[in-house]
Input
Amino acid sequence: MGQTIFVPKEVDATEARVAASPDTVKRLSGLGFSVVVEKDAGAGSRIPDADFVAAGGSIGKSSDAGKADVVLKVRRPTEAELKSYKSGAVVLASMDPYGNDAAVAAMAKAGISAFAMEFMPRITRAQSMDVLSSQANLAGYQAVIDAAAEYDRALPMMMTAAGTVPAAKIFVMGVGVAGLQAIATARRLGGVVTATDVRPAAKEQVASLGAKFLAVEDDEFKAAETAGGYAKEMSKEYQAKQAALTADHIAKQDIVITTALIPGRPAPKLISAAMVASMKPGSVIVDLAVERGGNVEGSVPGKVVTTANGVKIIGHLNVPGRVAASSSLLYAKNLFAFLETMIDKEKKAVVVNPDDELVKATLLTHGGKVVHSNFAKAEAAGA
Amino acid sequence: MGQTIFVPKEVDATEARVAASPDTVKRLSGLGFSVVVEKDAGAGSRIPDADFVAAGGSIGKSSDAGKADVVLKVRRPTEAELKSYKSGAVVLASMDPYGNDAAVAAMAKAGISAFAMEFMPRITRAQSMDVLSSQANLAGYQAVIDAAAEYDRALPMMMTAAGTVPAAKIFVMGVGVAGLQAIATARRLGGVVTATDVRPAAKEQVASLGAKFLAVEDDEFKAAETAGGYAKEMSKEYQAKQAALTADHIAKQDIVITTALIPGRPAPKLISAAMVASMKPGSVIVDLAVERGGNVEGSVPGKVVTTANGVKIIGHLNVPGRVAASSSLLYAKNLFAFLETMIDKEKKAVVVNPDDELVKATLLTHGGKVVHSNFAKAEAAGA
Output
């Protein structure tokens, strides 16, 4: 038998996801690993212990972490968890390291090789390992479902004998993976969908989903659109024109979904209190960036706020976790795909090669040190 | 000025709907009526008082009911409301009279002409007055939204770099107005949808929405299907075969939505506790008949129940009221369309003609008596 892999039940009670699925346990067992899954680890994702056993795993308890060479997790290990790991263990998780220098230093001190899955490069080879994409996709879907559940009207146009119910106007701000899935889902439900993004090149993607891109389409925009990709920042004049257009547009929307994140920095404020106040009573805003400071003035993490003018601002935490039975399957697959690249199939062991491009991008701590270039300060904090 | 029409704020705190809209107030004002809307009557449906005023109405208080010749309501008037009405007032509402003989007798005693909007005949002329259809349509939509919000997976199939999320399997039992809209909405969201109904003729409607009809398609079924409409009851043998097929099918579903109602009788039990127990953890059932006794064993009015095997049974009350801003507009239009047929445009007054086909079908009490043939016993109870 090869090395031991441990999959804990997440200690955060609000985290329903799990870092392995019967499918990934089966593959890891097939590669010669001994996989121990903590009792009830899959309960929140609708995976019974029996399914892990049927896939070749065994059911254990949290202290079994101590014999594991590899730990697969959703969230960064807590201090208590770190104490239970053996030095040299490889730990894969969404490490959320920015602004958490002390926690990063603690992982170094514990001697683990901690991989931050969210740093996976967005290159073709690593697509199947991209936890940000897999989870953002489901968050974008769920944002529309959450909005529809709070909204006091139907989303699709309905032509009935007693008159026509108009389609809801839905505006998606930020057209990354989450934004694109939100657009697609809102379109499925019959909404009239518009979207915007700082990248003029996003216009084509938005149009391909049947939605309309909101932008001041002057010469500057057209030049930037053709340049494609991450174009240079637009002029101050353009930004002012675009802001005025957006503010005017928001006042007419029924549902607005914001998805703008900047890695390592607070989320940009896209919607001011004045814009919220301009909306009709009964309108709904979903702030998918609420955990990072929020795109919307007045959004509160974990709450649905109703403003004085009757607008609901939804600030659910961990939105992918709201569809945990789907998100866990994809997350588990992401981790497996990456782990597989580090497996020495002869030795049935995980070998960390610091020169590998994916390892370089994601390895936070190794051999007792903080090794990721973005976290030199964390090393100092831990010293 | 003609007669006075009063639109109260509903006294039931869980009722967000209102029986008039700015559109219907405008039309009634245009016909010469004085329309008084109680303060905040539209608040739950996102209609500010100012919108009623702009449409030609005025804002009043509950005691203004006393000067009204016509009262437009969502729910049957309470004892207290009846006391405030003048004798001879015409009252249009969803009267929910079955099993409520004492309440029907009280309306007779109060001397009002009480119309039960839910008794509107399902004929072409009265389609625009059909409150059951307009509200069931929205209930069918909302049932799918509520199911999706509780469900822990995404509904559509999603093909991602980390693998495929399978589409949810959704089964709709009862293919009336609510069932058809539930099918349409579940299809919009990408579900794999099946449906069943006691009427074999429903097969074609189900197919036209891109869903599959579940039935034992033997010779008896095929004969009944061709006969169309409300065919005669199927044989005991057929029913047994169909029940076995349905039970087997339910065990494999992710979401089941039940919509079966029988006018004036308790809802039929479609799903037994054993069938619920056969479903996978995380599955969701929506019982749209919960207010009438329920189609599902174990559903509880007003609650989301999680069973021992992890199935969620949703029993929300007043599902159309969950999308009140849409349902009120249609409900108001239904009432207006019926009221208009009783308006004498010269006198600017409502005149009840007991010989009119629509009046005959809907008039419960008139001239101090219970006049509807289905409620002779209610007359006795009130004597």
